[in-house]
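Example record

Each entry pairs one chain with its bound ligand, iron/sulfur cluster.
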Amino acid sequence: MNYSRVPIKHSDPVERVKSLDVQTLIPYTLEEVTAEASRCLGCGLCVEGCPARIDVPGFQIALKNGNIEEGLKINFEKLPFVGVCGSVCPHPCEDNCVLDDNKGPVATRHIKRYISENSQNYKEMLGIVQNDLGGHPKVAIIGGGPSGLSTAFYLSINGIQVDIYEATDKPGGMMVHGIPDFRLSRNTVRKETEHVLSYGAHIYYNKKIGRDVKFEELMEKYDAIYIAIGNWKPSKTRTPGVDLKGVYHAIDFLKQINDGKKIDVGDTVAIIGGGFTAFDAARMSLRLGAKKVVVMYRRSVSDRPGYPSSNAEEELEEAEEEKVQFIWEVTPIEYYGKDGKVKGIRYWKNQMVDKGTGRREPVPLKDRKYSIEVDTVVEATGQKGDLSFIPEDIMKKIEITSSGDIRVNQYNMTSYPGIFAGGDITNARKDIISGVADSGRASMGILFYFKDTGKIEKVPAKLINFERGPYAVT
Ligand SMILES: Cc1cc2nc3c(=O)[nH]c(=O)nc-3n(C[C@H](O)[C@H](O)[C@H](O)COP(=O)(O)OP(=O)(O)OC[C@H]3O[C@@H](n4cnc5c(N)ncnc54)[C@H](O)[C@@H]3O)c2cc1C
Ligand code: SF4
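Structure tokens for the complex follow.
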């Protein structure tokens, strides 16, 4: 038996940077997916790596036997966004794979993408049995990103009335406003979002809580609230020149482009940062016509966010294939400009110093100053949640972590009974699968809360049941 990983092919980098939506990774064929799924040893270590604890060996066996429907159902038990995670999940499960040190971890994420792309009609294939729990209380969900939508899915298939309030004009959150199309096809997001909403949840668009609807109104009208507003407030640096024309924050930059706006980035773009968002902003800049894109990060390549992981390696490989350049260990001193428009960056070289904090810290070497001429600067320096819509008297009763996120219990309930929260506004990983895992816990928590307050008669043993197949209701 050949234990080597079936290679995942990439599209031609020279061609793909000419388009906003040519996918970087080429899907497996039937032959490839069967061979790759057959490599799974069934040890289950990967399950511990997955934030949602998906039964990875279960769906590998299903795929090995050519049973896509079963593979889809096993994923759906914990994840209504199989195609989304099959495209962009950072796949921590693969970092736990026992084959990782040898011939490459089983390509779990890519196998998941195959399942999604070869499942034409989710609703028909899944045959979900909608539960009747002896009551139909109402839940308001704030935010239509992956976490809000997943909670809406799990609650609506359990007979709960769900209204989602979404600030923008479309569902998906960062799946459509942040992550570029060339990594996550909009068709995949559309297909999975429409499916999730097809079980009865209602979504109000252009309804930002705090701007268009008061939070207090939701408190009066609904029996529970799930806050899934993500992190949308850009954390800009205070680098002199940050307000010059041509200096963007990555969240605004990517949102504008994803909404169809054209941005003239000129020939040279510098990205400040080293995470998911920095890599996406860099690769997007190439697709907008930049001839040179440089990512400038304050730490070293091996101290960047997400490293070490196979996802971080892949991210770097895909960017390097497209000729993105990197300047590691630097701190911008100033964005300088002419006539109000950015012209360049002056920066220090850093030294990475072990200060005993567990992570090496960058310290600028102030005698080593450099500069680079640029037409555009994109700061990918993080973002935070904006909780200003919550009135002060309620906010006082909601515990906040030291990093400004909402603190929740094991069922994602906040310290205010009946108010739950999940996704980027609560979890530290800040990725889609963690937000979806929050939704599973919160949905169960909301049902327990309704049972305790007499709004429903019973709580199901599992959130999801199917008419037929290995997980069918008996
Ligand atoms: C550029 C970029 C690339 C990324 N790449 C990846 C990746 O490859 N893999 C991965 O797993 N994760 C990635 N992430 C992270 C991922 O997108 C998030 O972890 C995930 O979307 C969080 O889901 P969420 O539902 O908590 O919030 P979001 O997706 O942010 O959705 C929140 C929603 O709430 C709405 N909202 C906000 N405030 C209000 C309000 N007051 N009233 C009503 N609605 C409101 C917003 O409009 C939005 O639709 C990336 C993020 C970015 C920015
Ligand atoms: S969702 Fe992500 S972490 Fe979980 S099994 Fe799939 S690829 Fe792995």
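Residues 50, 52, 54, 56, 79, 85, 89, 91-93, 108-109, 112, 433 surround iron/sulfur cluster (ligand 2) (CB under 6 Å).
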